[in-house]
Amino acid sequence: MTGHDQHDEDGYTGPAKLLLGDSELDVEVELRGHFQPIDGYYHWYGRVRADERVSEAAAGKKQPVEIHTPQGKARGELSDPDPWDRYRITGTSTPPFQVPTTLDQVAG
C-alpha cells in the first residue's frame, strides 16, 4: 500500500453546546474530520468528554444530536460510550468547525 491510506485531518478541540433531546448541554469535545474522495463526502467524528449529564440524557444509546462550536454547527449522531464514558459523535457533510479551503489557510 502507498501513503494514500492516511487522511489529512482537520479538527477542533474545546467547548461546545450539545443539543440532545430536550437537553442543551455545555460540553468539551475533540473533533476531527477529512474529505473522503471515494464517497465524495466530508466525514467528521470525535469524542465528547465524559459528562454525567450527557450519560443521563443519552442513556447509553445512539441519539441524533446537534452540536454547536464557536466555529459552526452541525447535525450528527451520538453513539455508544467507550469504557471511560466518552460518547463518540459522528457526522457527514459540513462539520461544526472551520475547514481550510485554500493552501494559504493550511500554511497560515
Tally of domains? 1
Number of helices: 2
The coarse silhouette is globular
Terminal residue distance: 31 Å
Radius of gyration: 15 Å
- What is the overall pLDDT average? 88
Uncertain runs with pLDDT below 50, 5 residues or more? 1-5
Counted beta strands: 6
CATH fold category name:
Thrombin, subunit H
Helix content estimate = 10-25%
Region (Disordered): 56-108
Protein name: DUF4873 domain-containing protein
Domain DUF4873: 9-99
Pfam families: DUF4873
Structural summary, described in words:
The protein has 108 residues and is mostly beta strands. The chain has a single domain, classed as Beta Barrel (Thrombin, subunit H), CATH 2.40.10. 11% of the residues lie in helices and 52% in strands. A 6-stranded antiparallel barrel has the order 1-2-3-6-5-4. The N and C termini lie far apart (31 Å). The N terminus is likely disordered.
